[in-house]
Amino acid sequence: MATTPEPSPNPGDAALPGTPGTGEDICSACHGTGKLADGRQCPMCGGSGRIVEGIGGG
Questions:
Q1: What residues form DSSP beta bridges with 52?
Q2: Which residues of 27-52 are buried (b: 16+ CB within 10 A; e: fewer)?
Q3: What are phi and psi of 50, to 5 degrees?
Q4: What stretches of 1-58 adopt beta strand conformation (E)?
Q5: Which spans does this entry mark as compositional bias, Pro residues (predicted)?
Q6: Average pLDDT, the chain
Q7: Domain extents for the chain?
Q8: Which are the contacts of 52, defined by CB distance < 8 A and separation ≥ 6?
């Protein structure tokens, strides 16, 4: 039986996707483009333009 590998977080992720209390947001390092100003892939979001972070607060 094959298993689906767990996604690995990017450096900008606070948690794995789907973790309760988290949500997807635009990466602040690349502003959602997935690339840095010099054209390299953004290391914070892995080139996706999105990160997972905690939501809410209290």
A1: 24
A2: bebbeeeeeeeeeeebebbbebbbbb
A3: -130, 150
A4: 22-26, 50-54
A5: 1-10
A6: 87
A7: 26-58
A8: 9, 13, 14, 15, 16, 17, 19, 22, 23, 24, 25
Strand partners, 35: 41
Quick one: DSSP state of residue 9?
P
Residue 6: count of CB within 10 angstroms of its CB: 8
Instruction: Name the amino acid, one letter, at 40.
Output: R
Token representation of residue 2: 């094959």
| Amino acid 57: pLDDT | 63
Residue whose entry in the numeric block shows the structure tokens 């948690």? 15
